[in-house]
Amino acid sequence: MTSEEMVSRLLYRDGLMLVIDKPAGFAVHRGPGRNGGQSLEDHFDALRFGLPRAPALAHRLDRDTSGCLVLGRHRKALAQLGKLFKNGAIDKTYWAVVEATPDADEGVIELPLGRLDVSRGWWMKHDPNGQPAVTRWKVLGRGTGKLTWLALEPLTGRTHQLRVHCAEMGWPILGDAIYGTAPRDGGPILHLQAREIVVPLYKNRAPIGVIAPVPGHMRERLTLCGWQDEARTLTEGAPSQVPSLRAEQSNPAA
């Protein structure tokens, strides 16, 4: 990835925070894996914008997940963002295409998660004695071939939470080679996107809402589920244009 390509993925920028559109298939932090061991961190220097140090990750996304990724521009900003993420103050909405059709139109998944096997690294499983994990979900569209377009809101932040929860419910995410039906090589790319993030970063300003454009690999299946391409303007500092599932749940009249 060139410096120009990294800058082109910038969705939001202010003095404390950047939000970039993470591509699928790229690890966020350094380590062995695809792309010759490259990670997004290797290219953050292009996002200094005059500051003496490159920004750093405020949270994580899976390698195969695309969409909104938050960076802190300096240590004070990272500490502030870290508290917001830890306290659950940041709303995150994901879009997914799953391989089955839920019976209901919305619901909440409450399935504790634990490590599948120490030798499997980050692989997870439903474990009644594991850490609590809660996901709110809503059907946004149903398509042919039993494909379904879901909005997912993780109310906890466990590793691989959305992927394991969907698989446990009987509707694995399309392209999931760990918990779903996709082959390890040559199958579809994971159809999971961090679509929107809402960050209450400033006390006297509205929360910052950022929406990532739908990635190319998800457009075909989303269209089959009723999604229509939209032209969105992501205004710096503007409130979110897509209400979160949490907001809808707390305000049924909305």
Cα gyration radius (Å): 18 Å
Oligomeric form: single chain
Q: What sort of overall outline do the alpha carbons produce when their principal axes are compared?
A: globular
Task: Return the structural class.
Answer: alpha+beta
How would you characterize the largest beta sheet? Answer: 10 strands, mixed
The percent range for helix content is 10-25%
CATH superfamily: Pseudouridine synthase
Runs in which pLDDT lies below 50 for 5 or more consecutive residues are 232-244, 246-254
SSE ordering: HEEEEHEEEEEEHEEHH
Question: How many individual domains?
Answer: 1
Total strands: 12
Discrete helix count: 5
**Average pLDDT number:** 87
Distance between the termini: 42 Å
Overall CATH architecture = 2-Layer Sandwich
CATH class: Alpha Beta
User: Beta-strand level of the residues, as a percent range?
Assistant: 25-35%
CATH topology: Pseudouridine synthase
Report on the structure:
This protein has 254 residues and is an alpha+beta fold. The protein has one domain (3-250): 2-Layer Sandwich (Pseudouridine synthase). Helix content is 16%, strand content 26%. The protein contains 5 helices and 12 strands. A hairpin with an 8-residue loop joins strand 3 (56-57) and strand 4 (66-72). The longest helix is centred in the N-terminal third of the chain and has 12 residues, at 75-86. The radius of gyration is 18 Å and the shape is globular. Residues 232-244 and 246-254 have low confidence and may be disordered.
